[in-house]
Backbone:
């Protein structure tokens, strides 16, 4: 599975990110609006990253950074975790179920900023396996 370096973000323009956040906010009756501090920085960073070939680790770090920039008033983490999990769907479908579950979970934790050292080690092991 050497297709782990690719333009992961190409099919996800910033307006899609905004729409995902709006949907998440609507589902929980939360305010959906951009923040004055992070929105523009995240938008520019996201759009600049969209055309690049990215490794899976780079994808996770971009989503983590955008989460931390807090472009929206609510559900920043959920927004970028949802994007990563959607983008990983094809890759996960080609893996054994137990490894796919672990990768999906770890990817979400990395983007949310809650990954443990053990999870980071597991991610590295899985990526080594996938790159063989």
Residues:
């Amino acid at each position: 599975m050497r297709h782990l370096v690719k333009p992961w973000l190409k099919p996800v323009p910033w307006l899609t990110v905004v729409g995902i956040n709006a949907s998440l906010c609507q589902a929980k009756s939360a305010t959906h609006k951009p923040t004055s501090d992070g929105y523009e920085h995240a938008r520019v960073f996201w759009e600049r990253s969209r055309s690049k070939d990215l490794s899976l680790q780079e994808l996770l770090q971009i989503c983590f950074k955008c989460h931390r920039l807090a472009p929206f008033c609510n559900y920043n983490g959920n927004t970028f975790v949802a994007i990563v999990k959607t983008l990983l769907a094809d890759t996960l479908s080609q893996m054994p179920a137990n490894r796919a579950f672990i990768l999906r979970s770890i990817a979400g934790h990395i983007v949310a900023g809650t990954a443990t050292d053990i999870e980071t080690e597991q991610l590295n092991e899985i990526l080594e396996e996938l790159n063989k």
